[in-house]
From TrEMBL:
Residues 408-550 form the PTS EIIA type-2 domain. Keywords: Kinase, Transferase, Two-component regulatory system. The lineage of its organism: Bacteria, Pseudomonadati, Thermodesulfobacteriota, Desulfobacteria, Desulfobacterales. InterPro entries: Histidine_kinase_KdpD, P-loop_NTPase, PTrfase/Anion_transptr, PTS_EIIA_type-2_dom, Rossmann-like_a/b/a_fold, Sig_transdc_His_kinase_KdpD_N. GO terms for cellular component: cytoplasm; plasma membrane. Pfam families: KdpD, PTS_EIIA_2. This is PTS EIIA type-2 domain-containing protein. The keyword Kinase applies. One of its GO terms (molecular function) is phosphorelay sensor kinase activity. It comes from the Bacteria.
């Protein structure tokens, strides 16, 4: 079995240009992830592959340390942090050494403050972009979207977490599984933790009930990943019916993280794009709300980006009307919203006033409204979604061939690079100017449409990307321009600076192409390594090469 896995990964290595990622996943420490990773490293070495160990956490386990012997090891970087000597993986040396395969243990590890990247998975993304293949390890509880699920199952708050897309985009996932009885026996024998930690571990995290639930969770997650990878790629790319997912955020909503994680998994089950939307009322302008609320809101929107959402900020005092307008424009079929913090007083109900949730249910015809109790997210909430998923995928498949010839692409984008800082609206004007040569594009009406959309609110993806956009008449295909400015594109109204701006103009009908392009731009814009490479580019042609390369990788499933 292990030889077959190694042979399969070997074939991937020999035919790829960009680095490939393989993850050994387990349900707890001690199941044998690092051990299996090292076994494969020896197998690859025997086949003549240049393998090095970037970082391997043996935790003093004799069998694991024995397997590490005989493999080239990159020396760790040494730091002193708050008076404590700390060792971290030496990313620069790995990139300089350029082995064919590097072992990087514990993918969810948080680097010490001051490191080049905050998280180890970001180091791995740099390694992959350099064409180096990576074999890594991960426990299921470190997936961001499973935070509440794991806490309910084990009572443990997992502090080190990674975005789900890291696992979703891995080239191979291998389940490392042993029975919970065998794992507890290994723990008692001192093969997992040191002797002084054994009793505490057995009585807390390693209780049989905890381990069984984590094991089941791991098997479900891997099954979901296999299902996602087996779907028809044409059907996945075409949002032919209103089945996108959106989550409604509040600046003071309780446990917005749980809401976002649920929406992320809902979108994953339905295999749809998803959006996070915050409606800024006149009472919640940045100059009005306090610093604490601003910080909470900023953290919430950042988490939404990390979980894979395209984030929108709209303005409007009628929150329900704004939400439903967005739902119609972006083909949303599922609206996820948290339980209202306060109910409408009885005397106001006599006057006809109802809650936001009640209005959404009443006025949102054709839209499924999911109301989540963010104080206690129910385990069974996704069961109905699972039952619907197969039916919806069949519908997508039927529609795929009808529109497969009209896919949008970024390969014809116009590119501008600015050497000095620039204001948002000036950047938009210049990007629109380079688009004006497109057949059927009327510059004045396009500018009016962009301004109208910007007045509703801003759109940003990742930490550095903005996407001003609009649907207009007269054009037959999406028109895209990209502006890059290392010094920053400043949005005075929201007091925010980005460095990359996509300007997107789509035909007014059908809406599918607009939603599809937003999804593609969103996925590209969330790629940390891609953003770094774009910001390092000196010529427009270099930026276009990076766009085409990343878009090609997305279409091929890389």
């Amino acid at each position: 079995m292990n030889d077959n896995r190694a042979d399969s990964f070997l074939r991937l290595i020999r035919r790829s240009q960009r680095g490939r990622l393989k993850i050994y996943m387990g349900y707890a420490a001690g199941v044998g992830k690092t051990y299996q990773m090292l076994l494969e490293a020896h197998r690859l070495k025997e086949d003549g592959i240049d393998v090095t160990a970037g970082i391997v956490e043996t935790h003093g386990r004799v069998e694991t340390e024995a397997l590490l012997a005989g493999l080239e090891t990159i020396a760790l970087s040494k730091f002193t942090y708050r008076g404590i000597d700390v060792e971290e993986m030496d990313l620069d040396t790995i990139l300089l050494r350029r082995p064919s395969v590097v072992l990087v243990d514990e993918l969810a590890h948080t680097n010490i403050p001051g490191s080049k990247n905050a998280k180890r998975y970001q180091d791995v993304e740099e390694i992959l972009s350099a064409g180096i293949h990576v074999i890594s390890t991960l426990n299921v509880q470190h997936l961001e979207s499973l935070y509440e699920t794991v806490e309910r199952a084990t009572g443990v708050k997992v502090r080190e977490r990674i975005p789900d897309h890291v696992v979703a985009e891995a080239d191979q996932l291998v389940n490392v599984d042993i029975t919970t009885e065998d794992l507890r026996r290994r723990l008692k024998e001192g093969k997992v933790y040191t002797r002084e930690s054994i009793e505490t571990a057995l009585d807390h995290f390693f209780k049989p009930t905890n381990l069984e639930q984590l094991r089941e969770l791991t098997l479900r997650e891997l099954a979901a990943q296999i299902d996602s990878r087996s779907r028809d790629p044409l059907a996945e790319a075409i949002p032919s019916s209103p089945d996108q997912v959106m989550v409604c955020l509040s600046s003071r909503g309780p446990n917005s993280g749980a809401l976002l994680r649920y929406a992320s998994r809902l979108a994953g089950r339905l295999n749809r794009n998803w959006y996070a939307m915050y409606v800024q009322t006149s009472q919640e302008h940045p100059t009005v709300i306090d610093a604490t609320t601003q910080r909470i809101l900023s953290n919430t929107l950042t988490l939404a980006q990390q979980l894979g959402a395209t984030v929108f900020t709209y303005k409007g005092d009628d929150i329900v009307k704004t939400i439903l307008q967005f739902a119609r424009e972006y083909r949303v079929g599922h609206i996820v919203i948290g339980t209202p913090g306060r109910s409408v007083p009885l005397w106001r109900r006599f006057k006809g006033e109802v809650s936001i949730v009640e209005r959404l249910i009443t006025e949102g015809r054709g839209v499924t409204v999911v109301v989540l109790d963010t104080r206690a997210l129910p385990d069974q909430a996704g069961e109905e979604i699972n039952r619907q998923a197969e039916k919806k995928r069949r519908k997508f498949k039927e529609r795929a061939e009808q529109v497969s010839g009209s896919k949008a692409t970024l390969s014809n984008a116009h590119v501008l690079i600015w050497d000095k800082a620039i204001e948002k609206y000036e950047a938009m004007k210049q990007l629109l100017n380079v688009c004006s040569r497109e057949k059927g594009l009327h510059r004045e009406s396009a500018w009016d449409a962009l301004l109208e959309r910007e007045q509703q609110g801003g759109t940003f993806v990742g930490e550095d990307v903005a996407i001003p956009h609009a649907r207009i008449t007269g054009i037959k295909r999406p028109v895209i321009a990209l502006g890059v400015c290392k010094s920053g594109i400043h949005d005075r109204e929201y007091d925010r600076t980005v460095k990359i701006m996509f300007l997107l103009l789509s035909p007014s009908e059908p809406p599918e192409s607009h939603v599809e392009m937003l999804g593609v731009i969103g996925r590209i814009g969330r790629d940390d390594q891609w953003r770094r490479e774009v910001l390092s580019a000196r010529k427009s042609s270099d930026v276009m090469s990076l766009i085409r390369q990343r878009e090609k990788q997305l279409k091929s499933g890389d």
